[in-house]
Specification:
The protein is of the alpha/beta class and 180 residues long. It is built from six helices and five strands, in the order βαβαβαβαβαα. A five-stranded parallel β-sheet has the order 2-1-3-4-5, sandwiched between helices. Helix 4 links the parallel strand 4 and strand 5. Helix 2 runs parallel beside helix 3 and helix 5 packs antiparallel against helix 6. It is elongated. The two termini are 39 Å apart.
Length: 180
C-alpha cells in the first residue's frame, strides 16, 4: 500500500541476539510499511543508534545489563516525545508493567509472545504514528492557509488606505491568534 506515505522506522533492543534475529526474520515489515532500522543488544548501543537515526517505534526488552528498558524508554522519549514504545519481558511483574504504562508504553508483551501478538501491537503503533503525522500535516496546511489569507488582507488594506492605522492592523491580526 504505497499511499501510507513515508515509512515508519523501528528499532529493536534485546540482549538475546537470537530473539532479535527471530523477530527480524519473521515479521513481514514491508506489509506494515515499517523499516527495521536495526537491532541492538543493549540500551547504550540503542541510544547511540538513535542519535544517528531516530525510530518511530522502539521495541525493547526490560531486563538488560547496564541500563534497563524503562530507563532507555525515558531517555528515548526525551529525544522523541512521539516515540511509540513496546516492552518485551520474560517477567510477569505487574509493577514493571504499571511503570511502563505510566511512561506511555503502547504494549507490554510477555515472553514467549506469539507473532500475532507482536504484529497486532505493531499495527496499533503504526496507526497511531500515521494519525499523528496526518494531524501535523493538516495543522501545517491550516497555518499555510492562514498566512496566505492574512497576507491577502494586509495587501488589500495597503491598497485601499493611504495610511494604515495601528488599530486596523490589530483588528486583522486578532483574527489570526495562532500566527501571533
Amino acid at each position: 500500500d504505497e499511499d501510507m506515505g513515508e515509512k515508519v522506522k523501528l528499532l529493536l533492543v534485546d540482549d538475546e541476539s537470537f530473539l532479535c534475529e527471530q523477530i527480524s526474520a519473521n515479521v513481514p515489515w514491508e506489509s506494515y510499511g515499517v523499516e527495521l532500522i536495526g537491532y541492538c543488544n543493549n540500551a547504550m548501543d540503542a541510544l547511540e543508534q538513535m542519535i544517528d537515526e531516530m525510530p518511530d517505534i522502539l521495541i525493547t526488552d526490560i531486563r538488560m545489563p547496564v541500563m534497563n528498558g524503562l530507563e532507555l524508554i525515558a531517555r528515548a522519549k526525551q529525544m522523541n516525545p512521539f516515540l511509540q514504545c513496546v516492552i518485551l519481558s520474560g517477567y510477569a511483574e505487574f509493577t514493571l508493567a504499571q511503570s511502563a504504562i505510566k511512561q506511555g508504553v503502547q504494549n507490554y508483551l510477555l515472553k514467549p509472545f506469539s507473532r500475532a501478538e507482536l504484529e497486532n501491537t505493531l499495527q496499533k503503533c503504526c496507526e497511531q504514528i500515521r494519525k499523528e503525522r496526518s494531524e501535523k500535516r493538516m495543522e501545517l496546511a491550516q497555518r499555510t492557509q492562514s498566512v496566505s489569507t492574512l497576507f491577502q488582507e494586509l495587501k488589500l488594506l495597503k491598497e485601499t488606505n493611504a495610511r494604515i492605522e495601528p488599530e486596523q492592523l490589530r483588528v486583522i491580526m486578532r483574527a489570526y491568534p495562532d500566527l501571533i
